[in-house]
Every structure is written in C-alpha cells, then in structure tokens.
User: Which sequence fits this backbone?
C-alpha cells in the first residue's frame, strides 16, 4: 500500500518531458500536482483519427474530419480582432481553407509552404468552400501516414493553449507516465465484480482511456472507470448511512391510539396506495430504535401533508412532541390552518410560531412547549431559535427541503439532547432516481408516486405571443365561471430592472383588457407586509388575477385558481415550469397551464415546452431536465459540492449506477466494516480516496 501511495504521490515535475515550468503550469491551470492526479485527468471526448476524409466529401454534419494534403500557400488578412492567417490546403479533390485567428506570427514562422500535412477539425461551409478554423495540424510522417487511433481530447485552459500545451502534449506525458506506472497500478475492484460485470482491469482501463488502440477498447475502459467511480461513491454513501444509523438511537414509537382513532373516525379521504406505503416505511423506522433521516419526495398535490400529520400522531401516541417547519410565513400559516382542523377533532393542542408571532403569545408558546402541553408546533425557521425548547421533541418535519441547509437540520437535532428527534424532509421537486441515489444516498428515500384519485390532469398548451387576444378571451370565460388566474413573469436577478418592467407593462396591459376585474400584483421588490396583503386578497378570492413574478412558486394553495399563464416561458427551466404549474389543479375543476413564448425558440426550449405539454408527471419531467441540463445545474449550488464525479455522468450512466449500487449494498451487507478478505482491499482504497469530498454530509 505504502509503495503504491508513494509512487502516485510523486510530483509531476519529475515526469519525463514535464519539468518545473510545465509542472507549475499544470498545478495552476489543471490542479495536477502528482502522477496520480495526471492519470486521473481523463479525456472528456475522443476524436476519430483512424480514417481520412477527402475534401470533396466534407459536410458540415461531420463532428470532425481528418484530411491528408498539401499546404500550398497562405496570406494574412483582416484588421484588429478579425486579423487572420488563411492557408490554402488541397488533397487533389478540392480546396480547403485553414484559418487561424490566434498565434498568427507563430504559425507564420513554423508552417511550411508546399509541405504535406495531416489536418483535423470541424469543417464549416461558406459559399461552396469549406474551411477549418484552428485545425489540429501536423507534418505528414511515415508514422502517421496511415492515420492514428482515437485521439483523446483533454480539458484545457486558454493559458495552457497559449503556452502550447494541447491534448497531444498531454497524451505524450500520459504515455511516459503509463510506461513507468503500470507495475504500480493495483486493481481497486474485487475480482468477483470484475468477472461478474466483465470489466477491464484497472491497468488496462487507464491505458485504453488515454491511449485507446480501438473504439472497443475505449468503450470498455470508460465503462470500467465509471463503474469504479460510482461503486466507491455508493459504497461511501451507504456506509455513512449505516454508521449514522448505528451511532444515533431514536425514540421508539410503537403505540398507536390517536393514530387508530384518526384512521377509524376522522380520515377525510381514503389514502392512496403510495401514501399508505410511505406511512408503513416511516412506521417501520419508528420501531427500530434508530434515529430516522428520511426524504419524502412527492409531486405537488400528491398529499404529503396528511402523511406528515399521521406520522406526527405516531410520535404523540408515544408521549413525544412534533414540529413542522415551512420556508415562508404563508406556507406555515396554510399548514397550520390545515392541520388545526384535524388536530381539533382529536383534541390535540397545536400552535404556530413565525417571525410575526407577538411577544406575549410567544411566551405562552414557550411555556406550553416546555411543559409538554403543546403537542404540535407549526412554524417557520423561527422555531429553531434557541429560545424554543421542547419537553420531548420526537419528530420534525421540514417542508420544501431546498430552502434549508444541514445546519438547520442539526439545530433541530439539538432540540432534544437526550435523544435526537426523527427527521423527515419533504420535497415537491422530484429528482431522478439516479440523482437521488448519489445526492441523498445516505438518507432513506420515500416516494409518493401517485396522485389522489379523481384529479383532473392539468391541460397544458403552448401559445405564441401573437395570439394574446385569444388567450385573453379564454381568461375572461374562466373568470366568468368564477375561477381565478395566475399570470407569471420571469424574474432573473441579473436583469431585475428589465423584468420588473416586463411585469409592470404586463400588469398595465392586463388592467386595460380587464377593466372590471380586481387584480393583485406580487413581486420580490415589495415589502413583506404588502406581499402578504396582496396574497391574502387573492386567497380570499377578492382579486381574480394574480400578476406575479416567481415569488409565488413555492407551495401556495388556492384551490379556486384554475389557470396558470407563464409569460416568457422560454426563460424558465423545466423544474420551475413544473413547480409553477403545480399552483393550479388543486380544486375539482379542470385546470389549465398556458406557456407563452415568442416565435423564435431554441431546440432545447422546444423540448422543454413539448415535455410540459405532454406530461404532468414530475419524475418524468425531471428525467428530461437531467438529460437537457446535466446534473450540475439540476442540483443547484447548494449541493454541487458533493457532485465530484470525474468520469461518470448521472444523466447517462443510470444503468451502471444501478449495478454499482447493488454491488456496494451486497458487499456492505456481507461485511459492513469491510474487514474480511477480499473486502479489506476495498476499504484500503476507500480510505485512500481523496479527502476533497469532506462535505458528503452537506445534503438537504
Ligand atoms: P403536497 O404533496 O403538494 O403538499 P397536499 O398535502 O397539500 O399536497 O395535498 C394536496 C391536496 O390533496 C390537499 O387538499 C389534500 O387534502 C388532498 N389530498 C391528500 N391526500 C388525498 C387523498 N388520498 N385523497 C384525496 N385527496 C387527498
Ligand atoms: Mg405541500
């Protein structure tokens, strides 16, 4: 082990062909300090250099083309940043222009007229003639005359390019390194997995990813390295989940009285199968004597609240208190009003605490919480303040998880020093399974994947701005039927002023078109009390149209609102569109979502809009979103710290991830501490993995 660690920790400057200057550059630009770092600097794609194209068969559809020919001549043309060197290149079938904007003087000095070269690049056509800008170019030699293999393309920076370090340079370093490193490369996966999944060995994989002899080798190498990465990622997450479970005891909630009373006499509707299943999962956790940390995912309207309430009853039945924390006052109030109805029927004492709770009321609350007289507390993050002390807090529910960090979660834990309360985080932002497995791999996950029966799916349509008159006609009909309407404008921080103008212009045009209809307006620049006032008017049905920015996005419930119009829909991401749409469709009436856009739309935007029109299923939408945007964007800044996968791509590698997770689970099942052979070796590798990911706990 030590020998291995030692070799791969060798400073990169000692590698043949690197030296101190280049080493400094690699340190600074690519964070490559050691042999180990360089080996893990994987190419992000490969170019096919195994075949040649003729100039007369070029097409703009080719991702890249390799051509053998003669550089006849060149000239320098243009001024300022349009200044460029244009070479004339021919292979006997036609003329190709080679264009350089950067490094002109260097190329002028080093290129040779009438010499034979091999060039590679993406062909572009203009006026019947093809050109390649900044082609990869090398002199024709006996070695390269028959073409090469698959050329790896490495992540580089402008500074590196300026200093003439390109993918080829890195390839050469890689070759020197692999030649001396091979005897030191140890297998990191157990033999059984390699056989079971027919994986390439570690050494083979490293050779083939950096110097692929063929496309097949490349494919095998990539698969193996992805598997390894995801395997260790899952191993670590599952292991920390096991650790956490063993470390923290939880209160046992096994008595059921209130729960039974509620089920028998007060349940307002039949639970969906999904709700019942999730409740069983929670109840099973409550019986283990281990502290629960569970994520509850469920689309908007799937009925998470009643699940939370019933789970709270389990706590109350066993002498513990429960709390529910919401991200805003409005939401806290809605939850409070909703739960109070159930609580009163059962004779449960429920309270509400938010930033605007009066001092006098606060004192009473504090006392009742401490004496245990108050059983359920609903509130905003005001309830994590130190002054709020419980007699015996046993269960906390956090609604709309993305607004809360782990810091808050641990402050909730601390509300019961003796024995941490069970925690359930609820989110209405569905995330694809692959992402959930990696992001929340150390939480238990429950999913409500079914809507209550009898819901009418929201009808979603895409309309162009030019058809606004028809839209307004439709809105008038809906208002005449007694419905309410949301009209939402984007609000992106960088252009807040412009957005505000869009919103106010829109508001004016709406007031002109709907002169007799009372309107509300809501945006982020308003004072909190003005916002609450406007929102309250809309909730009470005093206003019919709510013209707003995305501040209404989270959780607000106005069942009488049946139409959601989203202006500039092209500027919203899929997740956000889906969230916004979820504001309607909460009542018995047919609801609609209208996506308004300009005529000119990118392909991605069309895909987003089509997806919205096609389905109401949040999980399906999140899969498309992942595919379009990649995992980094999806998870948001809060979670990006843990997404340090180098080679695996969660958007594409779901199948490999599933196998890797299954393997990790099986191994940890057999040997949770990884102490017996052959698993001790895995543990060694797990421990040696970089500590760059100390923030694995930074979830939710
Ligand atoms: P969300 O998961 O978005 O928080 P809610 O808990 O607010 O959803 O539930 C949305 C609506 O559906 C509420 O009015 C709730 O009373 C109702 N509801 C929840 N579960 C059921 C069910 N099983 N059958 C019928 N209606 C239900
Ligand atoms: Mg909710």
Assistant:
């Amino acid at each position: 082990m030590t020998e291995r660690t030692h070799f791969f920790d060798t400073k990169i400057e000692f590698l043949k062909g690197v030296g101190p200057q280049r080493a400094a550059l690699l340190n600074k630009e690519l964070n490559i300090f050691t042999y180990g770092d360089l080996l893990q600097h994987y190419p992000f794609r490969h170019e096919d250099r195994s075949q040649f194209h003729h100039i007369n068969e070029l097409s703009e559809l080719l991702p890249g083309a390799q051509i053998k020919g003669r550089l006849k001549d060149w000239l320098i043309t243009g001024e300022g940043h349009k200044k460029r060197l244009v070479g004339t290149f021919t292979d006997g079938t036609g003329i190709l222009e080679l264009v350089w904007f950067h490094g002109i003087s260097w190329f002028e000095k080093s290129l040779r007229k009438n010499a034979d070269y091999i060039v590679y690049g993406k062909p572009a056509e203009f006026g019947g003639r093809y050109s390649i800008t900044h082609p990869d170019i090398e002199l024709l030699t006996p070695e390269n005359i028959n073409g090469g293999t698959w050329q790896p393309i490495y992540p580089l920076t402008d500074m590196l390019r300026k200093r003439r370090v390109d993918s080829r340079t890195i390839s050469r370093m890689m070759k020197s390194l692999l030649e001396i490193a091979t005897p030191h490369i140890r297998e990191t996966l157990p033999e059984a997995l390699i056989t079971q999944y027919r994986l390439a060995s570690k050494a083979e994989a490293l050779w083939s990813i950096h110097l692929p002899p063929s496309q097949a080798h490349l494919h095998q190498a990539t698969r193996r390295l992805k598997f390894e990465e995801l395997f260790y990622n899952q191993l670590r997450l599952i292991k920390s989940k096991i650790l956490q479970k063993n470390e923290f005891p939880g209160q046992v909630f096994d008595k059921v009285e209130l729960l039974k009373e509620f089920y028998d006499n007060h349940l307002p509707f039949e639970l969906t199968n999904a709700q019942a299943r999730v409740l069983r999962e929670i109840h099973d956790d409550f019986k283990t004597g281990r502290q629960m940390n569970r994520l509850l995912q469920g689309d908007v309207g799937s009925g998470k609240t009643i699940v939370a309430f019933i789970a709270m009853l389990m706590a109350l039945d066993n002498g513990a208190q429960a709390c529910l924390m919401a991200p805003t006052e409005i939401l806290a109030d809605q939850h409070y009003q909703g739960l109070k109805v159930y609580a009163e029927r059962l004779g449960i004492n429920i309270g509400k605490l938010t930033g605007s709770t009066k001092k006098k009321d606060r004192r009473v609350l504090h006392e009742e919480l401490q004496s245990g007289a108050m059983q359920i507390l609903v509130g905003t993050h005001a309830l994590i303040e130190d002054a709020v002390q419980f007699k015996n807090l046993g269960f906390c529910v956090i609604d709309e998880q993305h607004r809360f960090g782990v810091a808050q979660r641990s402050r909730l834990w601390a509300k019961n020093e003796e024995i941490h309360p069970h925690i359930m985080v609820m989110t209405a932002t569905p995330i694809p399974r692959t992402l959930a497995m990696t992001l929340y791999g150390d939480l238990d996950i429950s999913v409500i994947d079914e809507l209550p029966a009898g819901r009418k799916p929201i009808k979603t349509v895409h309309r162009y701005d030019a058809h606004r008159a028809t839209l307004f006609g439709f809105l008038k009909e809906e208002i005449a039927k007694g419905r309410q309407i949301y009209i939402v404008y984007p609000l992106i921080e960088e252009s807040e002023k412009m957005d505000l103008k869009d919103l106010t212009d829109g508001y004016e045009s709406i007031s002109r078109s709907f002169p007799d209809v009372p309107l509300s307006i809501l945006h982020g620049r308003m004072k909190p009390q003005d916002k609450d006032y406007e929102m309250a008017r809309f909730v009470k049905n005093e206003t019919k149209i709510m013209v707003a920015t995305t501040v209404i996005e989270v959780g607000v419930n106005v069942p009488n609102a049946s139409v959601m119009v989203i202006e500039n829909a092209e500027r919203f991401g899929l997740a956000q569109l889906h969230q916004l749409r979820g504001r309607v469709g909460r009542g018995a009436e047919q609801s609609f979502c209208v996506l308004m856009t300009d005529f000119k739309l990118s392909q991605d935007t069309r895909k987003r809009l089509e997806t919205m029109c096609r389905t109401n299923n949040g999980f399906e939408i999140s899969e498309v979103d992942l595919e379009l945007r990649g995992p980094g964007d999806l998870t948001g800044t809060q979670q990006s710290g843990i997404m340090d996968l180098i080679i695996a791509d969660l958007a594409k590698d779901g199948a490999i991830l599933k196998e890797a997770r299954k393997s990790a689970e099986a191994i940890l099942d057999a040997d949770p501490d990884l102490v017996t052979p052959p698993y001790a070796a895995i543990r060694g590798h797990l421990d040696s993995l970089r500590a760059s990911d100390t923030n694995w706990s930074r979830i939710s």
Residues 269-272, 275, 298, 300-306, 428, 452 surround adenosine-5'-diphosphate (ligand 1) (CB under 6 Å). Residues 257-448 form a domain with the Rossmann fold fold (CATH 3.40.50.300). The two ends are 36 Å apart (CA to CA).
